[in-house]
């Protein structure tokens, strides 16, 4: 019952509130939101100093705001009515102090005049008279990426010519053989044909003058591989008398070498060679009374590996040489066999060195070997097979094309199976040096020590020292010269007999073009011996034509 009375009382009170609100003075009728907004804006126009200084818009262009009209008379006082103009309008003809003091803006000068006279630009001001600066307050467009690299071309620059029209660079070697490509090899063949006039055709103590036709064939092949390398050199020389002393000789040889870069500071090589030549008439084993000197064939094979461990260098090399002598034909038609001179020499060399710098490596090496004769006992009844021992110390240097090679010196000894024969022993000197003091000049020094056997009864043989110094010089682009000095010293073991052979030669080649040239050379050779009947000297002149590819 109590809850019912409370609910009825609240409902009667809520129903009576609107009727009481209509009795409040100056709030007669409903008030629209638009009328309240118009009144507020009109009040702002009369009180804001910034808006009061604005230039009034023409009366015909402004849209007057509707005045508030209360529904009940006397709800709003008569003096509180909103102005008849717009929100920001002033009465017609009214002008602010700032507008009256501000002079009219002059016309902006042209771009060219503005750049030449920056002071002519009018000062821009705000409505309150404050000076405006040129600081940008909006987003400014930037240049694209790389615009600073795309510079305009210089109108005075010359136009670049086409590649085909550019001048060709001069060839540094315009007369060098270009070679022939055969797979991955470059072949460089050549042939030389000419005539030789000599004072001693057979290079012997009994030789006489002659004019010889001489033909020389040469072939050089070099691989074009990126890692390993291979090389082949071959030659052939044919001589025949045209007049004078009768002579017919043939000699030649071929040598092939393969170098391998195995990896992990391990390198290897293999080499094969063959040569054939007539035995020299001045040889101590030469046979008298023969039609022509018999040929001597030499076969060789070599292989080895070298390993680097830090700065230490270790190597092992095996060599085999085979000597075969043809039978000699006497002038009376008889045949003299030389099979007892056929022999095979097999050696193994151990080397150890230390790299003191990238270009210098001193080393020591030892050599062991044996010489096997095909016939255990020769025609004189001697057992000539022997054991070979050697030890050397040397220096290897490698400074590229400027200087490369090696030099060694030591001792060499061969002892025979037959105790009646004295051992052959003596100093051992070997050299293989190439030096280029300047471009176009090459100096070579070659030297070797060999042991030569014999079948003369009671004699052991001889030790031979052979040295040669040569010079090649490019005098002009189409003119090359060469010169050489040679010395051969032969010491006969067990005796005081010795031979000394000296030689000197010089030559030039005048190239007509890259493929043909004219060559000439002069040569002098002499042999001096303390054994009677062996001395001779010879002078020769050669003139011919050389073709190359």
> Quick one: biggest sheet?
18 strands, antiparallel, barrel
Total DSSP E strands:
21
What general outline do the C-alpha atoms trace? elongated
How large, in whole angstroms, is the Cα Rg?
57 Å
How much β-strand is present in the residues?
A: over 45%
Helix content: under 10%
Mean pLDDT: 81
The parts where pLDDT drops under 50 for at least 5 residues are 14-28, 45-62, 79-89, 110-116
- Report the total helices: 5
The computed structural class is mainly beta
N-end to C-end Cα span: 138 Å
> How do the SSEs run, as a string of H and E?
HHHHHEEEEEEEEEEEEEEEEEEEEE
List the helices and strands and how they pair.
Layout: H1 2-21, H2 33-47, H3 49-52, H4 97-101, H5 111-116, E1 180-182, E2 185-198, E3 210-223, E4 229-244, E5 248-263, E6 266-278, E7 295-309, E8 312-325, E9 328-329, E10 335-336, E11 343-354, E12 360-373, E13 386-398, E14 403-416, E15 424-435, E16 441-453, E17 461-476, E18 479-492, E19 498-511, E20 516-529, E21 536-548
Antiparallel strand pairs: 1-2, 2-3, 2-21, 3-4, 4-5, 5-6, 6-7, 7-8, 8-11, 9-10, 11-12, 12-13, 13-14, 14-15, 15-16, 16-17, 17-18, 18-19, 19-20, 20-21
């Amino acid at each position: 019952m109590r809850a019912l009375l409370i609910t009825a009382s609240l409902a009667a009170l809520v129903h009576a509130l609107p009727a009481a609100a209509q009795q409040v003075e100056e709030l007669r009728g409903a008030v629209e939101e638009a009328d309240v907004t118009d009144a507020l804006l009109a009040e702002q126009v009369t009180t804001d100093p910034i808006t009061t200084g604005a230039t009034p818009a023409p009366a015909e262009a402004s849209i007057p705001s509707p005045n508030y009209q209360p529904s009940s008379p006397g709800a709003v006082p008569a003096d509180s009515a909103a102005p008849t103009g717009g929100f920001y309008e002033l009465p017609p003809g009214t002008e602010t102090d700032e507008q009256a003091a501000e002079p009219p803006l002059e016309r902006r000068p042209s771009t060219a005049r503005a750049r030449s006279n920056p002071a002519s630009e009018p000062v821009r001001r705000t409505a309150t008279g404050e000076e405006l600066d040129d600081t940008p307050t909006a987003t400014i467009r930037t240049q694209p990426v790389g615009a600073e690299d795309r510079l305009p071309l210089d109108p005075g620059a010359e136009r670049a010519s086409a590649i085909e029209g550019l001048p060709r660079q001069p060839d540094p070697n315009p007369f060098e053989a270009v070679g022939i490509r055969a797979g991955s090899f470059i072949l460089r063949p050549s042939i030389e044909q000419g005539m030789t006039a000599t004072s001693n055709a057979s290079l012997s103590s009994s030789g006489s003058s002659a004019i010889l036709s001489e033909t020389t064939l040469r072939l050089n092949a070099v691989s074009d591989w990126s890692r390993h390398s291979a090389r082949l050199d071959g030659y052939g020389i044919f001589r025949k008398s045209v007049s004078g002393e009768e002579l017919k000789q043939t000699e030649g040889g071929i040598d092939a070498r393969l170098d391998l870069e195995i990896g992990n500071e391990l390198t290897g090589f293999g080499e094969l060679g063959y040569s054939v030549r007539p035995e020299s008439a001045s040889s101590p084993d030469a046979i008298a009374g023969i039609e022509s000197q018999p040929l001597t064939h030499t076969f060789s094979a070599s292989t080895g590996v070298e390993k680097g461990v830090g700065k230490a260098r270790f190597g092992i090399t095996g060599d085999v040489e085979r000597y075969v002598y043809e039978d000699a034909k006497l002038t009376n038609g008889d045949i003299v066999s030389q099979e007892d001179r056929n022999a095979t020499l097999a050696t193994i060399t151990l080397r150890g060195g230390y790299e003191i710098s990238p270009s210098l490596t001193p080393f020591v090496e030892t050599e062991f070997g044996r010489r096997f004769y095909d016939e255990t006992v020769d025609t004189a009844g001697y057992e000539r097979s022997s054991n070979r021992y050697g030890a050397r110390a040397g220096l290897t240097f490698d400074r590229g094309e400027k200087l490369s090679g090696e030099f060694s010196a030591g001792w060499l000894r061969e002892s025979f199976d037959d105790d009646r024969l004295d051992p052959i022993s003596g100093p051992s000197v070997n050299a293989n040096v190439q030096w280029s003091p300047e471009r176009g000049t090459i100096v070579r020094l070659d030297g070797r020590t060999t042991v030569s056997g014999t079948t003369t009864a009671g004699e052991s043989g001889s030790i031979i020292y052979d040295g040669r110094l040569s010079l090649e010089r490019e005098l002009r682009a189409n003119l090359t010269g060469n010169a050489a000095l040679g010395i051969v010293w032969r010491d006969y073991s067990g005796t005081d007999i010795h031979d000394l052979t000296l030689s000197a030669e010089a030559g030039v080649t005048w190239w007509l073009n890259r493929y043909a040239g004219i060559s000439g050379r002069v040569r002098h050779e002499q042999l001096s011996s303390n054994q009677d009947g062996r001395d001779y000297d010879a002078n020769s002149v050669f003139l011919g034509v050389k073709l190359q590819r």
